[in-house]
Amino acid sequence: MFTPAQGGVVVDAYSPHPAGRTAPPTTGDSVPGVQSADGNPTASSAPARPLVAADVRGGPIPKHIGCVMDGNGRWANRRGLPRTEGHGAGEAALLDAVEGALELGIPWLTMYAFSTENWRRPADEVRYLMGFNEGLLARRRDELNEKGVRIRFAGRRDWRVPKRVLRRMDESVALTEKNRRMTLTMAFNYGGRAEIVDAVRALVADGVPANKVDEKAIRSRLYYPDMPDPDLVIRTSGETRISNFLLWQLAYSELVFPDVLWPDFRREHLFDAVREYQQRQRRYGGVT
Ligand code: FPP
Predict the structure, then answer these.
(1) Which residues of the chain have pLDDT under 50?
(2) Is 244 designated active site?
(3) Global confidence as pTM
(4) Which of 89, 116, 155, 221 has a CA-to-CA distance to 55 between 20 and 30 Å?
(5) Ligand 1 atom nearest 132 alpha carbon
(6) Structural domains present in the chain
């Protein structure tokens, strides 16, 4: 259960959107005694409570959310556990985020699971992460399939990714390829710069002359040209970096940095982030 004490963004569930839209409470399931972010009891007569999907459904829902699942190591350290235990605990957060996104009808969700730079981590942790990602697919692909989730992977299939992991990835893609309720893209051995480099290599390999290189030509050579740019990117743990995630696609994404470690992340935090997104004004370089 989300509590502000865990460091989540606290939003008054009853306040109106800036554009005049309101997100009325629908369930009446308020949680008495919930505190505000500064630790004081809330003064409002309507006590703050964790958001539910219905609180944000009245506003614009992002078509694509990207998540940087950060803070697993710190979560484990604080408990005197090995870092790998933090990754293990992140699995429940991942599944709950998917559930929350399904509740909101979000069709695209991209999760940063392993970067091209994460090979620099201690060998034991890298080995664990390879096995963990393989195991996660084995454990979860059937339930994701039953929920109508299409699983895809964005990243390099290089020699460092063990064959058995690649096999499990391919099986998961094949099992779920017809699903369209949501596309869950796992960014695995993924780097935003590597993706752009790979697109440029493809341009050269295709013999595209310099005067024909434009945004469309590059976009069409990204890993998934059909994937819309993320409207919203959430990075947990309080770090405010992009760390090489979807560099091309993030040009106009709204960024939210909830102060919660990934293993503690639950759908309530996703709804908070969507609420924050709904309060942003997107201009794409123009004026409003
Ligand atoms: C970027 O920070 C964060 C990531 C690439 C996410 C890594 C996530 C995991 C290893 C765990 C995945 C968990 C599940 C449940 C699948 P960074 O640490 O690569 O970059 P930084 O050094 O800039 O912080």
Answers:
(1) 1-44
(2) no
(3) 0.86
(4) 89
(5) 16
(6) 60-278 (3.40.1180.10)
Q: Which of 12, 38, 55, 70 is catalytic?
A: 70
DSSP string, the chain: ---GGGTPPP--TTSPPTTS------S----TT-B-TTSSBP-SSS------HHHHTTSPPPSEEEEE---HHHHHHHTT--HHHHHHHHHHHHHHHHHHHHHHT--EEEEEEEETTGGGS-HHHHHHHHHHHHHHHHHHHHHHHHTTEEEEEES---TTS-HHHHHHHHHHHHHHTT--SEEEEEEEEE-HHHHHHHHHHHHHHTT--GGG--HHHHHTTSS-TTSPPPSEEEE-TT----TTSSTTTTTT-EEE--SS-GGG--HHHHHHHHHHHHT----TTS--
Catalytic residue among 118, 133, 189, 244: 118
**If you measure from the C-alpha of residue 117 to the centroid of ligand 1, how many angstroms do you get, rounded to a whole number?**
9
Which amino acid residue places its CA nearest to atom 9 of ligand 1? 113
Q: Is 117 in the pocket of ligand 1 (CB under 6 A)?
A: yes
List of residues 6+ apart from 234 with CB closer than 8 A: 65, 66, 67, 68, 256, 257, 258, 269, 270, 273
Please tell me the predicted confidence (pLDDT) of residue 46. Answer: 55
Q: What is the pLDDT of residue 270?
A: 98
Instruction: Identify which of 67, 120, 243, 257 to mutate to test ligand 1's pocket (most ligand atoms within 8 A of the CB).
Output: 243
70 is catalytic: yes
Q: What is the pLDDT of residue 21?
A: 32
